[in-house]
Design brief:
By secondary structure, this protein is mostly helical. The protein contains four helices and no strands. The N and C termini lie far apart (43 Å).
């Protein structure tokens, strides 16, 4: 149980969650060093407290998704 909590609260876990939704909504992988992607990863584990719904709102507001 402890291992699962540590793994779920890690940067690689946040990166994978954001990547899955990025691929689903944007339709392709982020470009290497994609600033919007990196911001989403960072905010998922900090400000959004791993709440995917909050991250999705940010993702939809990105230029990669199509927001102006």
């Amino acid at each position: 149980m402890e291992w699962a909590e540590v793994a779920a609260n890690s940067e690689p876990f946040a990166r994978k969650v954001v990547l899955d939704y990025w691929r689903l909504l944007v339709g392709e992988d982020p470009q290497p060093g994609e600033a919007e992607f990196e911001t989403l990863v960072q905010r998922l584990s900090s400000e959004h407290e791993y709440r995917v719904e909050r991250m999705l709102r940010d993702l939809i507001a990105t230029e990669a998704y199509g927001a102006p």
